[in-house]
Each structure stands twice: as C-alpha cells, then as structure tokens.
Design brief:
By secondary structure, the protein is an alpha+beta fold. Helices cover 26% and strands 28% of the residues. Strands 2, 5, 7, 8, 9, 11, 13 and 14 form an eight-stranded antiparallel sheet that branches. A three-stranded antiparallel sheet has the order 6-12-10, with no helix packed on it. A three-stranded antiparallel sheet has the order 20-21-22.
Length: 386
C-alpha cells in the first residue's frame, strides 16, 4: 500500500516537473518577441539620442569644444593620423564655379582657402549639413563671414559676404542659403573666400572638390596628418605640383630650415625671392622644394656631388590616401609624384574602357579608388586614373 502511494507520488511529481518545464518553455517563447521589441525600442531611443547629440554638437567625437567666439579655436583637439571624411551630400556654395585665386602662398603669406567668383548679392549656400558656429565681422580679415561645422568633421569658412542670413548655433542643410556674396573686409573685389578645415588644419578645397564640375572628386576624402621625423610639423603641401612649404616659427632661421629639408640656404633664397640676410617673420610661408619640373632640371644640371646629404622627410599629400608616401629627399633627388589624373564618368563608360584610355588596368583603378570590379559607376563621378 505504502509502495503504491510512493509510486503515485513520484508519478505526480514527474508530471508536475514536465508540466512546469513545458510552461517555462512556453513562457520563454512568449517572452522572446517582447524582449526583441524592447531591444528595438532601446535601440531606437539610443539612435534618437545619438542624433540629438550630433545635431547639438556636430563631429562631437573629434572636437573637444564648441566655441562661438573664435574662428580657429579647437582646445586640446587630438589630430588623428588619418581620418576618412564623407563627402556625399555636397552642394556647390556659389552659383559660379570659377576660381579667381587658388589655395597657397600669395603675397608672401598663406592663402588658406580659395576665392570663387561671385557678384555682390549672389546667394551663398552651405556646402554640407551642419551647424553654424561663427557669424562675425573682421574689418582687416574675412569681413562678414560664417563658419559651419559639419557632421563629417570638416569646418567650412565663407568670407567677404555682404550679408549674413544665418545665426550662430543654427542648424543648416546642404544647399541652404547662409549669406550673400560681397566685398567686405580685406578684399579687392567681390568674391567668396572659401576654406575647408579639419581640426584647424587647412585643406586645399580643390583637393576635395572638382570645382569645374561642382562635385567632389570622390565620395570620401582621407585626411592625413603631416609629420616630420616622427613629430607633428608645421609644414603643408601644395596639391597642384607637390611643393613643400614650411611655416616659420620662433627660433627658425634659413640655415635651420635648409637642414630640416635637406636643401641649401641659397636654394631657399632662390625659391622665395629672399636674401641670406632676410629677416623671417613668424607665420611666414617658406617654399622648401622646387617641384617636380624644376627638380628634374636641377637633377640633370647638377652632378651627384651633393648626394652625401640625405634627409628623410615623411610628408603627407592631402590629395587622397594613394598620394601619401614617404619621400627620401636628397639635395640631388627632389623627384615627387606627378599630379593625379581624374576621369569624369559619362554615359557608356566602363572600368575596362577607362583603364584602356589611360593606359592602366582595371585592378589599378579599383585600388586607386577603393572600389571593386563589379562596382556600378555613377554618372559624374570622378575616378582617379594615375
């Protein structure tokens, strides 16, 4: 009798455990969609929060502060060695695409942007989505100008406006009117002074934008931090002919600069129209290389007697990632890369046809442009071919 009771009790317990297990599995199965929905809600909330933070402070991960007072105030910003900048969504800031003054040294000082032809009253628009950081007036500089920080990490400067039509901390979209063309400030005629900067580092806008056609050269641009001998330097490069310049700082002399770049004082004087006794101004731009054509001539006219002086200079050309190279610079070998050649995709173009036209291969085109052989070419896109 007792034995039968024990068996019955055991069977009841087993049945209860099986039932509980089934109930638990059923409960878990019912809970799974709920958990998924909660995760989706959390994810959407997080995305909404991230978007709100990005709109409040564009490129927050790059810039440590938001300053409405000074155009070039970046606090303790850390400049990465490389950074990929998204150029999709670009809008030409002016009605005209004509460049009246390029980026580079001008009148013995650095022109950190380029000038675009505009008439007084022409509409000026934002180049990318972003947030207006500065709306101010400089009598001896930009005149009436606007600075916009963009989500892609760039800051753009629009100078010599006749009228500013935005306010500080205002969100703007690419193509939105921000001002009118003018001739205010240090200007000798109506034009737009346009700058592209990354963490305060001036980038030649023509390296990023094909102004003739009013579109970016590529969908992305890779910024490279320039370093010499393992430390950040105050040099910059001219994109058109790969010239190297040095920004004069306290304590610099022509002899010191010549030693840094493996050249001579006489050569520096020749390139910059100086005398060996010339006094250097802090911030002055000193050209330190003769460029590809001039260097080639110098190489044929001078024997290799000066080959004993070697200076390894690691420079970064801001044109794109493929143009970056370590240049072993000697006084008799100043060879530098030729200017990159681009092709504008038109109807009927294929990678094979473009490769044949420029005497290269499809694989090389893919490597230079970060694409694959199956990539669909968009009309108007710029492809680097050399």
């Amino acid at each position: 009798m007792n034995f039968n009771c024990i068996i019955k009790t055991g069977l009841v317990a087993v049945a209860a455990m099986v039932s509980l297990s089934s109930f638990s599995q059923d409960l878990i199965a019912r809970q799974a969609p709920i958990d998924k929905k909660l995760k989706t809600v959390d994810s959407l909330a997080l995305q909404k929060q991230i978007r709100a933070e990005q709109s409040e402070y564009p490129a927050l991960s790059l810039y440590p502060n938001w300053n409405n007072q000074y155009a070039h105030a970046y606090g303790n910003a850390i400049i990465p060695d490389t950074y990929t900048i998204d150029l999709t969504g670009f809008c030409m800031p002016t009605p005209s695409t004509k460049i009246t003054s390029p980026f580079g040294p001008r009148w013995r000082r650095m022109h950190n942007g380029l000038d675009l032809k505009v008439n007084i009253g022409d509409t000026i628009v934002a180049a990318f989505d972003g947030k207006v950081r500065i709306v101010k007036y400089e009598r001896r500089g930009y005149g009436k100008y606007v600075v916009i920080r963009h989500d892609n990490g760039l800051e753009t400067v629009y100078g010599h406006l006749s009228k500013q039509l935005v306010e500080e901390n205002q969100l703007v979209k690419a193509g939105e009117v921000i001002g009118l063309g003018g001739n205010t400030g240090r200007s000798t005629g109506s034009h737009l002074h346009f700058e592209t900067r990354f963490l305060g580092q001036a980038i030649n806008p023509a390296e990023i934008i094909d102004f003739e056609n009013g579109v970016p050269h590529q969908d992305t641009y890779v910024f490279h931090n320039v370093k010499i001998n393992g430390r950040r330097s105050n040099i910059y490069t001219s994109s058109s002919d790969r010239l190297v310049y040095h920004r004069v700082k306290s304590g610099d002399t022509l002899g010191k600069i010549a030693r840094i770049y493996g050249t001579s004082v006489n050569e520096l004087c020749r390139l910059n129209g100086l005398k060996s006794t010339s006094v250097l101004r802090i911030g002055q731009s000193i050209r330190c290389s003769a460029g590809a054509v001039t260097s080639a001539k110098a190489e044929t006219s001078k024997p290799a007697a000066s080959a004993s002086v070697k200076q390894t200079v690691k420079t970064t050309v801001a044109a794109d990632a493929a143009a970056v190279a370590s240049i072993n610079q000697t006084s008799d070998a100043g060879r530098q890369e030729a200017t990159p050649v681009y092709h504008r995709v038109k109807s009927g173009d294929t990678l094979g046809a473009i490769a044949a036209k420029y005497g290269t291969t499809v694989s090389k085109l893919c490597e230079l442009n970060g694409i694959t052989k199956t990539t669909i070419l968009k009309l108007g896109r710029s492809l680097r071919c050399s």
